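Hi team,

Filling in the usual template for the complex we talked about on Friday. All components are listed, including any nucleic acid strands or ligand strings, so the model treats them as one assembly.

SUBMITTER: L.P.
PURPOSE: interface mapping
COMPONENTS: two
RESIDUES: 594
SEQUENCES:
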Amino acid sequence: MNIIELDEVHKSYDGVAVLRGVTLRVPPGIVYGVLGPHGAGKTTLIHLMLGFLRPDRGVIRIFGSSNLQQVDGRVGYVPERLRYHTRYTVREYLWYLGRFSGLSGATLRRRVNAEMSATGLDSVADRPMSALSRGMLQRVGIAQALLSEPELLLIDEPTATLDPEGQREIIELLAAVRKRGCTILMATHFLDEADLLCDRIGILHGGRIVAEAETCTLQRPARSIVITVADLPQAAETALTALSPAVHCNRREIVLNPNTPELQAQVVRLLLDHAITIITLAPQRHPIEEFYLEAVRGHPQREESSETPPHGPSGAGDALLHELLRREEQRTLEDQPSRRL
Amino acid sequence: MNALVRTFWFAVFTLDEYLRSGRIVVELAAAAVAYYLFFRRWTTPMTPEYFFSTVSLFTLGLTIYTGSSILALGDRPAGYVALARRLGRGPYLLGLYLAVLAVSWGVYGAICLLVAFTNPIRGLDVTGWALGTIPLLLNLALLAAFLTLLTPIVLPAPWRLAVLALVALAFSGSLIGGAALSSLPESVATALDVMRTILSTPLLPAFTGFAISVSRDYSGASAVVPVAQLFLVIGLLAFAVYSFAKREIVFSG
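RESULT (copied from the run log):
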C-alpha cells in the first residue's frame, strides 16, 4: 500500500488554478521530493494532504484513508515559514505540542528530551524561542514534527529561509532523520537538497507532476562537462578540436558537449600528453538540473492569469526556471567564441 | 474524553501565551479603573442592583476586547503546527473560546473579590451574589460564543456580514420606530415588525439574563432563562465548530 496517493487533484484560489491534476504515489519508507519553483503549488499540495485545504476535484488518500482527520496523529509537519508560538521556551513549546498529540507524563518528558537531543536543541532548551536563530527555529520545527514518532513526515521547504551554513546543518539533520525509516515527502526548490536527501523526485510544473525519477538513476555521466586548465597552448587547442566537433575550447576551458566517456578519456589523455595542468573537471550542469530542465521544457507552463491568489502559491513565480534558463543562455553565449575558433 | 483533555490543554496553552504577551495588562488596568470609578467606597454603600448592572456592562464591554485579542491568536500561521497534530479543529476553536472565558470570568471574579473586601454590598449575601452571578457569567459566555462565531477563521466574510446585518435588524427599533415607522407603508412596517420579532427572539435570553442578574428574581418563567442562555451558548458554539470544521484553513499573515 502506498502511504500517499493523489489522483487528479485540482485546486484553485479565486479562479486561479494552482494544481491542475496532480497524480502522485509515495510508497512506504522513501523520501520523495516535490521539486518546483516558488509558486508552483508545493505548499498547497502539502496543505491539501494535511486536510487544511480541500481539493476542488480529485482524491487524496493518506495511509489508504481519504478521511484526512483520521490520520492526524500519524503525520508530522514541518512548515516552510518559521512561524511558531515564540513566547515559550523550546522545552515548554515541545511539551505543549506533545500534549496536543496525546502524550503525557513520563512518556511526554522522554519524547521531548529525546527529540531535543536528536535535533541539537539541548543547549537552547530553556531559552525563549523568540531569541533563537532561524536555523535553531527550523530545528524546533523538525523536533516538533518528530515528537509523536510519525509514520509520515511532510516537510515544506526546510531550508528556504536559511543562510548557507544553516542550510547545510538542516540538510545534515534531515539526513539523520531519514535513517529513522519513516516516509518523508519534502517540497523544495533546491536541486542539491533534493539530490542529497531524496530517493525519488517529482517535478511540479504547471500544476502537475510532469516527471518523476529515482535520484539514483540520475547519477549518470554528465551530458556535458567543462574542463578548466591553467593555460591551453594553440597546438593543444588545435589537436583537441580535431578530436570531435563536440569539443569546444578557449585558453582556459574545454567544453565537451555532448560528452561521452570515450571522448572524455581522449581529451584528458591529450591534455596529460601536452603536460597541461587540469584544474577542474566538472559537469556543465547537475544531472538533476538537466532532468528538471528537460521535464519543464517538455511541458511548457500554461498561460496564467496575472492575478495573484491571496494566500500561497501563484503558479506564476517561476523564478528557479528563469534562473536556470538564464544560466544556460549565459553558458551558450560563453561557448560561442570557442565554437568560432 | 481525549478531545476534552486536548481542549483543556489548548485553552491553557492559549491563556499562557496571552499572559506572557502582556496584553492581560489592558484587562487589569481596565478593571482597576472600573473599580476606582464605580465600585470603591464613596459616600453611600452600593446596592446590589447598581453593582450587577454596572459590572455586567463593564465585563461585557471588556469581553469584546478580550475576545478579539485572544481569538486573533488563533488566526496566525503558527496555528498550522498545532492543527497538524491530533488536536483537531473542535478542540482548537473551543480552546480559544475557553481562554476568552477564563480571562473574562477572571476579571469579574477579581472585581467581586475587591468589592467584597473593600466595599461590601449592603443586603447581598453569598446566595444573592450567586443568583446574580449565574446569568451574568452566562451572558459573558454568550457574548464570547458570538465573537467566536464571528471570527474570520470560522465564518467567511459574507456570512459574518449577514449575521451582523440580522443582529442590526433585530436592534433597529431605536432607529426605525415611532414616527419613522409610521411613515413607512403599512405592509413594510408590518414586515419589519415581524422580522424584528423573529430575529430578536434568540437575543431574549441575553436581555432577560441581564435583567435577572440585576433583579435576582427567579419567580415564574424566569427560572428557565439561565437554561435558555446555556442552550444558546451551546447552539452558537456548535454552529461555530461545525463551520470551522467545514472551512478551509488559511490563516492570516
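MY TAKE: Chain B is about 75% helix and 0% strand. The radius of gyration of chain B is 20 Å.

Thanks, L.
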